[in-house]
Write a structure and sequence with these properties.
The chain starts with a helix and ends with a helix. The chain has a three-stranded antiparallel beta sheet. By secondary structure, the chain is mostly helical. It has ten helices and three strands; from the N terminus they run αααααααβββααα. 66% of the residues lie in helices and 8% in strands. It folds into two domains: 47-253; 260-360, no CATH class. It has helices at 2-17, 36-95, 99-121, 132-164, 179-191, 193-211, 220-253, 300-311, 317-322, 339-360; strands at 260-268, 278-288, 291-299.
Amino acid sequence: MEEQKQKQNNQVDFINNSEPADLSSPDFSQIKEKPKKTRFKKYLFLALKIISAIVVLLIIVSAVLGIIYYQNFKKAYELGFAAKADAEEALHEIINRKFSNGAELIEESNQKLDQAKELLDQVPVIRYIPYLKTQVKAVDNLLIAGVNLTESGAKVVWLMEDIFEPLHNESITYTSITLEQKKAILNKLVESEELLYEVKDQIDIAVAAIEDIPDTGLIGPLKENVDKIKDTLPLVKNLVDYSLPMIKVVPKIAGFDQPKTYLFLFQNNSELRPTGGFIGTYGILKIHNGEMVSFETDNIYNLDRAPQYILQEEAPAPIAKYLEQKYWSLRDINWSPDFPTTAEKALYMYDKEYEILQSLK
């Protein structure tokens, strides 16, 4: 008990001897750190100074580049207009059948467009500047299209010169062209097939280049011209795509180096049949090297009468029932509305009936 009392007395003495705590307000006068708001303003001011310096530097660089490449842009601009003038003059020459002059002018236009493209290719920096790179891309693609179109156009015009050269500037009418001239023209078409497919490939490249130009972000005059080209160039492509197969088969149809014989079926649309009308007359056309050798027509009943009953091919049920024709003949051959099917059957029936008719003579 006495020990506990002694400990308690010692604790009281310790508390009594302790110095009182200093409860006065803290002194902030010695703090040297400025408020955070002032520091933010300082950083913002520094950032603005850096941005201003960058802008000034860009202006200086742009001015220097403008001085250095000004002649490139100016020359490319002049070459573009000169190429346009050459193309317009070439069209005038072609209309007047001066094909060689027209082809040479188109080649000059092509060279100028190629030079303009080379000049712009020497200015790579501008292609990385926002907004400007969109305009440059459009001009680049226009030049690619122009180079390919003029190069392919010159090939076509030179071909026209070769085709019409045998005519010796004569007026183009069927009767005025001799057999030898027709043969020469067909021969040129046969020889030009590979060249014409090269032309098609170049036109496809031109179309792809134009379609790759952005629809938005272009300056007014540039967009206006791009839109016009986008509307008209596909028409040229379609014309070439549809014409090439025709050019490929025309010499064969015209009997180049081998005579051709064609069966014509004349239909009367006042007597309705599946392919358009009743076949009342037929004709046989013979052609060689573009020259019509003969074209004879006859009443189809003169071909049908005797062979019909000898051939004895059973007619389709509706023909037998409603027309009371037991056996099928050429005049009723157009039973299928699908013309290729009817044409194939008509050739078969004509050959059979003609063979029988000849054997009866």
